[in-house]
Amino acid sequence: MAIHKYDVVIVGAGGAGMRAALESGQRARTAVLTKLYPTRSHTGAAQGGMCAALANVEDDNWEWHTFDTIKGGDYLVDQDAAEVMCKEAIDAVLDLEKMGLPFNRTPQGRIDQRRFGGHTRNHGEAAVRRSCYAADRTGHMILQTLYQNCIKQGIEFYDEWYVLDVLLDEGRAVGVVAYELATGEIHTFHAKSIVFATGGFGKVFKTTSNAHTLTGDGMAIAYRAGLPLEDMEFYQFHPTGLAGLGVLLTEGARGEGGILRNAGGERFMERYAPTIKDLAPRDMVARAMVQEVREGRGAGPDKDYVYLDLTHLPAEQVESKLPDITEFSRTYLGVDPITELVPVFPTAHYAMGGVPTDVETRVLANNADVVPGLYAAGEVACVSVHGANRLGTNSLLDINVFGRRAGIAAAEYANEVDHAPLPESPEQRTRDMLENLLTGDGSEQVWQIRKEMQETMDMNAQVYRTETTLKQALTDVEQLKERFRNVSVQDKGSRYNTDLLETVELGFLLDLAEVLVVSALARKESRGGHAREDYQVRDDVNFMRHTMAFAETDADGRDFIRLDYKPVSVTRYEPMERKY
Amino acid sequence: MATATATAIPEAAAPQSFDVTLRIRRFDPDDSDTHFWQEFTVSVYPTDRILDCLHKIKWEQDGTLTFRRSCGHGICGSDAMRINGKNRLACKTLVKDLKTKKAITVEPIKGLEVEKDLIVDMEPFMAAYRKIKPFLITDDIEPTRERVQTAEERAAFDDTTKCILCAACTTSCPVFWTDEQYFGPAAIVNAHRFIFDSRDSAAGQRLQILNQDEGAWRCRTTFNCTDACPRGIEVTTAIQQVKRAMMYGLEDAE
What's the 3-state SS for chain B? Predict the structure, then answer.
């Protein structure tokens, strides 16, 4: 058994993890544990930009950005947190530029900005140019820039090390257990503070923009350790996934003037959001698209998608501002966006929920207490700055603002305290789990269970939900969890055993799918990304509150999910009807 | 009959699945030291990616088949491999674009040590990248707001900012195959990204590093790298610009 001792251990090397490492590394002895090489992280797939009220091209201020974020999140956003994020957004963008990020430029040589869904001038008057971008590769540039600066600072990375457990001692986080992919060895990392920055769990769905590796590891590890998960029913479906594939086409395409059309060629968003039309927030656009298809106005042989139309834009603009999505469309669908309509349909994209934190990124054990030494930032966390629906670009902003905050907070805490003792046999739980999987000779196969989970989630817990569909999803997921006990791993080896890790990841996904569905069943209203056909209006009296889901065991030893609720933090914005 | 054909619609256009065989280079370090070829046949659609084929094999036939992958659409750079003799990303290569009459061959990228099946040791590649100081270095007084850069200045290094560090270029280079001390195309591409960035002040340092024995002069302009780049970077052109900057200075390099 090898034990590594650090002040701060950061889990995950996407945008949030590396932004945290840049701060923590200056203040305390820091290690970053990451299951992928840092530049493989899914931050790199983000395209359209990062909003900040720089006002480089037109009037703007952070208060308008805050309002848009809160309204976009259908008033489930914690307003103090949104203020922090939108205020710090400006420095977050400028910091990245100073680190070398190659933003697109205005004719004056300043950072250029473009329109994005739900971002408006003066509380909804009209779309505003707020998104700072680098073509449609903003996430790629952020990921590369942060990694480059980690190299500059000499940050210590453990590449392809999978964290599988968090160690808690009397409620304080004291370390993590990690599996080294190259050797199959298990290591304990003893730390004063730990930052979770492990990303989302899009792979619970079949059609998703998410990477194969987005399996909610950090959320599931925290949940299994007895910590709550907040607002898991709020999952974002991005309107413009390549039809049938789910590959993301940025909202920046509509920011540049792209238009959604149904089979009849109608610009249908005019009916759903008369003021900002195609630039309405994602939840509204996704619902509108599904509605068009349901009412028979879908395109294609099965009438099951709509079109993204860029053909009226100058070819030069499409090639220079949207080069990657143009290529994706050509490569994967054989469709040239410059001359042809691109088939699109909503794709599972982003978890608004996750591990609850306060604005200092400290992880919450319940509505009142934090877990000393444990921090979370990025998609794994729920601060909550996105509420019931995240606005486009606010995720790249979130990882930079709260990644930075997490790095500072974790290092400062580490510099105030001593290492707390590790629990006895810290690796036992992990060893037992892996041993069970490796020695099991059950008949169930990982891919089969994963496929069935993804199919039921797409069918029953996607853009629209009802009591009936959610109950079906719950029954299916519970049965799949039962079958998962009987799963077998074919690769019994110790080196690069990705077969074993895919199995572990499926276990995480099944837990999270169940939490999503149980949380969704209990929320009998429609708000943001959670649209219940049987409860179509927002119910602020009963449901303007965050869901907190806990894994518990009853007196008979049966596992169940206990739901609690947490009030929304309101500063200056009273809920109002959400019209665009 | 003719009428029936004329009115028969979309059904005929629906894609049909068919069988393809993949011939995959295997190596299991736990089991033996021998590398061997193994064939698998899978049912695919023309628009399936090679990554889809590999997943089908791993999931339905042989769980021990091992390869790296993440995003699945050509952005993360995990799954560079040698497919029908050419370096490509498995997730960006569609079955319909390959000759499938014979088996599709899939091998690890060349010039880096194979760890297991299609996984190679990336460390020498990353070490070369780190050596060229792949980060912005400035010596001016930091402004309060952003540094000003014109659109033209920004365009000078746009192409090389696209690099995803997949190693397809470096491991397609015959010079790198025979001499792993050579920095390789990817490191030079990333040096280019900073050398031609108007905000950077360390071009001299990087040019000095690349002016060494194992630097840019080892490039023999075979253009393999440019062909291999899944991001469409004009790799050979970038290397030539770096060479010209070493000869004539930055101003006359482009």
Answer: CHHHHHHCCHHHHCCCCEEEEEEEEEECCCCCCCEEEEEEEEEECCCCEHHHHHHHHHHHCCCCCCCCCCCCCCCCCCCEEEECCEEEEHHHCEHHHCCCCCCEEEECCCCCCEEECCEECCHHHHHHHHHCCCCCCCCCCCCCCCCCCCHHHHHCCCHHHHCCCCCCCHHHCHHHHHCCCCCCHHHHHHHHHHHCCCCCCCHHHHHHHHCCCCCHHHCCCCCHHHHHCCCCCCHHHHHHHHHHHHHHCHHHCC
